[in-house]
Amino acid sequence: MKKLLFALFALALFSPLAWANVPYGPNCDVSADALNGVVLCPDVPGVINQSIVLMTIRNQADNPIANAAVNVQFGSGPFCFCATMNYNTTTDANGRASLTLRGGGCLRGIDQAAVIRANGGVVRDYLNAKSPDWDGATGNCSVNIGDVVRFVSHDLCFDFANDGTVDLTDYVVFSAGYTPSHHCP
What we know:
Elements: H1 2-13, E1 29-30, E2 38-39, E3 52-56, E4 69-74, E5 80-81, E6 88-90, E7 96-100, E8 103-104, E9 106-108, E10 114-118, E11 121-126, E12 128-130, H2 145-152, H3 168-178
Parallel strand pairs: 2-12
Antiparallel strand pairs: 1-3, 3-7, 4-6, 4-10, 5-8, 9-12, 10-11
């Protein structure tokens, strides 16, 4: 009887239904892929578009996973997070979800700078988590003149496109957080 139960359990474990709620990273769409990393920004007076991570979570059969528990975690670094930061969300019936990343700081070229998981499985492991709020040492949850000084020095923590240069593309992201000056509530 035990052998029969074990065989049935093993069969269920390897059936297609058992994998229906397991995300398969290559089939998932994540808007942060366009920047090869995530952007955080304090959220007052409003959220900047680049800090919103849109995603569609799919399984290996390329089917969307409804009601998947999605979570983002950040590596140990000089981050500050707004009290309004929500690290968790759930996908809708079409496997879609969004997270708004509210905070400041920088991790650049570091494994697990930002990791997005769905139902416990890794969807993305980004090497970059950056913010307009970076004074060279930490994020203090306020985009201010100290951050401007670092930006004009071409600090690669402001290379939001992660292409090796701080240029006009990066200025657009920085200026969205600086004008007006964003801060945490």
